[in-house]
Amino acid sequence: MENEVRTPDGEIRQISLTPSEGGLYYEQMSFEPAGGDSLWFTDVYGGRREVRLAKVGDTWWIHLDGHAWKVDIIEAGSDGDAGNDSSLSAPMPGTILEVLVREGEQVSAGQALLVMEAMKMEHRITAPNDGVVAAIHFAQGERCDQGAALVTIE
Amino acid sequence: MPEWMKGATQPFEKVLIANRGEIACRIIRACRELGLGSVAVFASNDANSLFVEMADESVHLPGEDIASTYLDGKAIILAAKTTGAGAIHPGFGFLSERATFAEEVVSAGLVWIGPSPHAITSMGDKMTSRIMMREAGVPVIPGEELDLEPENPASESILSTAAESVGYPLLLKATAGGGGKGMRAVYEAADLLSAWQGASREALSAFGDGRVYVERLLSGSRHVEIQVLADQAGKTLHLGERECSIQRRHQKVLEESPSPAVNPALRTRMGEAAVSAAKAVDYVGAGTVEFLLCEDDEFFFLEMNTRIQVEHPITEMVTGIDLVQQQLRIAAGLDIPFGQGDVDLKGHAIEVRLYAEDPANNFLPAIGPLAVFSPPKGVEFRLDTGVREGDEVTPDYDPMLAKLIVHADDRDIAIRKMGVAIREFVVLGCQTNLSFLADLLTQHSFRDGHTPTNFIEEHWPEGWDTNSIGADVESQLVCLAALAVAAESFGLAHRSGSGELDEEANRGDFHNPFLRIGRRFP
């Protein structure tokens, strides 16, 4: 019942649930299957409600108190930091319209690196932090798949 | 032939809908309610879509891209002929504002559910429409109409001269534009050139026309539009306003009617201006005249949309008039069965647009499976949707999935009702803007009705983030983590909706975009 997950704040948390009659416990919270895609969730104040969940890939989508959240399950043995490397990945499949930087160039956080088109709109891909452009993986006019590394910043 | 069609000069019994998604569903429903048959046309990647299922008949358009499917006028007219449809409804977007298509429909002996090609052409070109409106006595925004060709080196200096005379901040707009495409706000001269290049490029790819013009950006102003309805006999009415100021990326997010900024006297003035605008082009059918409304109640013509508008339901809720049914009746040659004096706005209606997008990442479009799509229950509301649970949101089309509309006695109750409805709306598997919408409704200035067009930028200058709904609250994060682990431990159903999403069963299916792109969501 021990699992590693990444919560919406980007942190990795280890959660170890305790089984008990018909349910699972964590600290003062309890969880029971509610049939289908739902769980009965009792919070630390004793408030009990039905929570809907859906798993897509390694991500659990959770509708809690009016909002949808994503929590990633980190499989044992995988590199938990895989999502935080220094390559900027394409948020959508699309076409690179313009490359605004050169390899070796010093860039600052927020600076536009390239312009891509996806879903008929232009999107600016910006640097998440200060650094040097180590590699640009696509040229103007090329198509990229979702998740493809676009620019590596070191 | 349905009873109401008797006496129509251009009767028809079956309508082909040259569109897809939620608006196709909306039109099919109106046809059904009026006793008319419906024909859908669909691209391969829409074969399992809701609108195809809803239509009485459907015709597959075999092309690979939009140009050879939903934009292929000839194939669509052929589909109408083959199925015996007597009329074509274009919806919005796609071919709805292409005068040449309207002409082709009419020359094929079919009824075009829309205004004349002349009205479409006059209003479709922003420069022409500005000039025509000025002549018709409708106020227009101070600006310069420029014919700039991107290839022409002289364009640069013409542009900067015009920009200086109009003044900053300014707006560059595609001459053929609409829907926020080919539009850029420019706050200082240094950004002018790159903004123009971007706007022009976007306009060229979206409309096949890269021309751009420049006008003053009136900040603090509102986007208020007037619904008009005109029959073939020339009776032209207005159906009050819609407040559409809350926008992101120049696309509307939330609309309401009536506008908190419009009193009855102003409504009459704007309504009359809108009717003049429509009459100037001999408008027939349902159309929308968009105005920029300033704080001193001065208003300026922006453009006229010569088609049904996305946000038409809120007008229907407050007036009790079904606009799509009226479009069908008017196209058949029937007169509008009521007068201006019969139009009354009752209560307050709000619409929010459900977009597949990440509001915490600059509203970037999102894709993914709708593993759960469960609209609110137990609250009086209207859902105009093009999707249902199990569908996949792909990058092929617009990210707008559905519209949620509430109607109540007054604005305050309507806001509360919408707040409840949004929080009960469960969408899992694909990122949506629902949490952003919920947060938007709680803003004091929204509650007070202070909604200029820069509302979103002003309230979230650094961008919206999930901390405003508790992503930084440790106890909440621990709950979420424990819920995920509990669900994993219980082996809760892996909800994949349509069987196509089952990775094991479809491994290697190249045509499944969900597998092709890998299971990583932004």
Output the keywords:
heterodimer; A: 154 residues; mainly beta; nine-stranded antiparallel sheet; four-stranded antiparallel sheet; 17 strands; 0% helix; elongated; B: 522 residues; alpha+beta; five-stranded parallel sheet; 18 helices; 34% helix; globular; disordered C terminus
Termini separation of chain A (Å)? Answer: 38 Å
Strand element count of chain B: 23
- Order of neighbouring strands in the sheet with most strands of chain A: 2-1-9-8-7-6-5-4-3
Q: Can you count the helices of chain B?
A: 18
Per DSSP, what share of the residues of chain B sits in E-state strands of 2 or more residues?
Answer: 15-25%
* Mean pLDDT over the full residue set of chain A: 85
Largest interface: A-B, 61 and 68 residues
Shape verdict of chain B: globular
Number of H/I helices of chain A? 0
Decide which structural class fits the backbone of chain B: alpha+beta
Query: How much β-strand is present in the residues of chain A?
Result: over 45%
Main pleated-sheet profile of chain A: 9 strands, antiparallel
Class per helix and strand makeup of chain A: mainly beta
Short summary of the structure?
The complex is a heterodimer of chains A (154) and B (522). Helices cover 0% and strands 56% of the residues of chain A. Chain A has no helices and 17 strands.
Description:
The complex is a heterodimer of chains A (154) and B (522). Chain A is mainly beta. Chain A contains no helices and 17 strands. In chain A, the strands form 3 sheets. In chain A, strands 2-1-9-8-7-6-5-4-3 form a 9-stranded antiparallel sheet, with no helix packed on it. A 4-stranded antiparallel sheet of chain A has the order 10-17-15-12, with no helix packed on it. In chain A, a hairpin with a 2-residue loop joins strand 13 (112-118) and strand 14. The radius of gyration of chain A is 21 Å and the shape is elongated. Mean pLDDT of chain A is 85; it is low at 79-85. Chain B contains 18 helices and 23 strands. Helices cover 34% and strands 24% of the residues of chain B. With 522 residues, chain B is α+β, with helices and mostly antiparallel strands. An 8-stranded antiparallel sheet of chain B has the order 14-13-10-11-12-15-22-20, with helices on both faces. In chain B, strands 3-2-1-4-5 form a 5-stranded parallel sheet. In chain B, strands 6-9-7-8 form a 4-stranded antiparallel sheet. In chain B, helix 4 (99-107) packs antiparallel against helix 5 (117-124).
